[in-house]
Amino acid sequence: MQTRAEDAATHRSISANEGPLTERLCIATRKVRPVGELIRFVAGPDGAVVPDIKRRLPGRGVWVTARRRVVEEAVRRRAFGRGLKADVQASCDLPDTLDRLLELSALNALSMAHKAGLVILGFARVEAAVPVAPLVALVRARDAGAESCRRLAAAFKHHADRVAERKIVEAFTSAQLDLALGRINVVHAALLAGRASETFLARWRFLEYFRADDPGDRRLGSRQPDDIVPEPGS
Asked: What's the pTM value of the predicted model, to 2 decimals?
């Protein structure tokens, strides 16, 4: 049985169209959390549970803590049907689908940063830019060579004015970076300061937060997995 606080939170969570709110109830944990730590889901026309990454889909929505294990628990406990008050189907591969969507969202943002002229490509160009350019992150393929990675990381940290704000992103393969950046054999890249770069980093951090339950996941690329979680729809 829900407490009064949970009943109130459920009422506030009925629709994303009711106005901006800062907290919602997670239907799996029954805890009220900041919206920046949650993912919204709606019922699709075919009765399937659909992740609403950008929080823009119409209709009744429910919220789940943005962790893989919590989404898995919501599927196992059939929490989506109760939360949406509808006969919906949450596929057992929903966590994998969500992972792919979050990954694609981050890569699309990286592509937009590149189009905005904020991405430097290639080991030599990145190495030359580290001491002089306003870089906010290094992006390197997770299948890159260890020695070149160490060399750039050392230079990056040495020249960073505030190391805590500098990021090293290793969440994507070279093939994924190739597609996002429209180049071949992309291994090393760097991000210049700018709005599009901020958007990419926000989506990357949210992806890392979702994946952070499994410390052995080789897809993880965050140097600071416990960073404050940003809005996924940014």
From this structure: 0.79
